[in-house]
């Protein structure tokens, strides 16, 4: 994707692909960096086939640690924007025409969200 733009966050909000082009989209260890997650999910929905699957793997931590981390990310220069819990991700997915069908911890501090398009 670097040939299309120099900033991957921007690219995620403006994917250079045709509608319904992909069967599966895998977003690994980057979703917490997106400053406009709704725009990113809208683009993912646009390029995903109606019978496709979206997989998002990202860092995970329990509350209240997640809340503290989300508070302090605004003071960080590391590019982190927001860490999501299961219900928060479910609500975000619903707003963006996805249905979260599974969420599974894959490690001590990682989670995998699996979603399908709402038709």
UniProtKB/TrEMBL annotation:
Residues 12-56 form the Methyltransferase type domain. Signal peptide: none annotated. SUPFAM superfamilies: S-adenosyl-L-methionine-dependent methyltransferases. Pfam families: Methyltransf_11. The keyword Methyltransferase applies. InterPro entries: Methyltransf_11, SAM-dependent_MTases_sf. This is Methyltransferase domain-containing protein. It comes from Defluviitalea raffinosedens. The lineage of its organism: Bacteria, Bacillati, Bacillota, Clostridia, Lachnospirales.
